[in-house]
Amino acid sequence: MIPGNSLAPPAGKAVFLDRDGVLNREMGDYVWRPAEFEVLPGVPEALQLLKAAGYYLIVVTNQAGIAKQLYTAADVQACHAKLQAACGGVLDTLYFAPAHPSVSESLLRKPDSLMLEKAMARFHLNPASCWIVGDRLRDMEAGAKVGVPGILVGATEPVDYARQTPDLLAAAKLILEVSTV
């Protein structure tokens, strides 16, 4: 900003996306082999809709299997590359938390919010113009810590949460509907 100029550039908007259960099929404990990594139906369309509306698309995922030495950061990146290819390269970045409380602590790990905070600083995001979409309450808690509203998708058990949709495509349509009101 130019000194004396009160007109700051507008802050950006983003959708933070949990990975397993939101973007790809949840397959038990860990999803890390690209051959088994399956993008969920409707995900490419949902991401295209959000990107066309001007949202940054930022993956924020806990990857405890790294701390447990079940797989590596390179395995996570390989799955991300497959996801990018399936979705037309629209994802802006991937943040992952490689820790697990049984091995190591980290503020990156949701329900903490450091992955979101890093992205907010990097992309100059306005939390009030952002969303987090996840399949667990810890995703919603991470968003709440930094003032980002959330949408819970595909809840496998009854949960009392204000915004719930069956999948990412329904969440994307809700975001676009609410954002144009």
From TrEMBL:
Domain of life from the UniProt record: Bacteria
Any one GO molecular-function label of the UniProt entry: metal ion binding
Active site: 18, 20
Site annotation Stabilizes the phosphoryl group: residues: 61
Keywords of this entry: Carbohydrate metabolism, Cytoplasm, Hydrolase, Magnesium, Metal-binding
Positions of Mg(2+) binding: 18, 20, 135
Entry GO terms, CC: cytoplasm
Cofactor: Mg(2+)
Enzyme category, top tier: hydrolase
Site (Contributes to substrate recognition): 109-110
EC number: 3.1.3.-
GO biological process, alphabetically ordered: carbohydrate metabolic process
Record has Metal-binding as a keyword: yes
SUPFAM superfamilies: HAD-like
Family membership noted in the UniProt record: Belongs to the gmhB family.
Protein name per its UniProtKB record: D,D-heptose 1,7-bisphosphate phosphatase
Organism: Hymenobacter lutimineralis
Organism ancestry: Bacteria, Pseudomonadati, Bacteroidota, Cytophagia, Cytophagales
